[in-house]
Amino acid sequence: MAVVKTWSTTHIISFEVSILGISESDERFEVGSSWFHTGSLWAPNSSETEWVSTQNITFDRPFCAIPTVRLFMSYLDAGREPVGSLSTTSWAENVTSHGFTLGTKVWNGRTDLFGVTLRWIAHDPNEPTIRSGDLEHISKEWVRDKTGTIRFDSPFPTSAPSVLVLGIAGMDCNYGHKNLRFQIQESNLSSESFDYVAGCWASSRMKYGRWSWIAIQ
């Protein structure tokens, strides 16, 4: 069962969620989640324009090789200040066969988040039934969205993947006193590629976006 909800004065106009069920016995993957909040240790960078928090993750089953790690945001409570903007992102670093460091940061006037849950999925990069990747946008100007085509490093041999999961890992959005709108959508999935549109719509705009995707045969 998937539950989508808001609280306090926030309301949903539209929402889409990707669901991926992975069996504990599926040795292709290691999965987990991490929770960051106001009580987490947030440290400023040298210029105090960004505030960063990290957690060390240990895999239950070590990989034989250094795995690929993809991140998906499943919970966000950012507070109202500064009004009309939200700047946060996440990443995996220091990845080894035994674990990695999960990082998240905020900027543009924020020093922490009330709460954010980051779901992570790790897999062997040489596993023939899996393709995955990150998509990132960086610009100096506020833009609406980013469109393009993701081509798999190697095509799936027989058909399009049976599962394609996409999600948000970070954003730098300006939405004024209106609604925050941020997304990633896919189309034209084949054994070789898929098309995407990622970012904002209506009056929302972005200077930064980060998204993750996983395709499974």
Automatic annotation (TrEMBL):
UniProt superkingdom: Eukaryota
Annotated GO biological process: cell-cell adhesion
Domain H-type lectin: start-end pairs: 54-123, 149-216
A Gene Ontology term for the protein's cellular component: protein complex involved in cell adhesion
Pfam families for this protein: H_lectin (PF09458)
A GO molecular-function descriptor: oligosaccharide binding
UniProt cross-references to InterPro entries, sorted A to Z: Galactose-binding_lectin (IPR052487), H-type_lectin_dom_sf (IPR037221), H-type_lectin_domain (IPR019019)
Protein name, per record: H-type lectin domain-containing protein
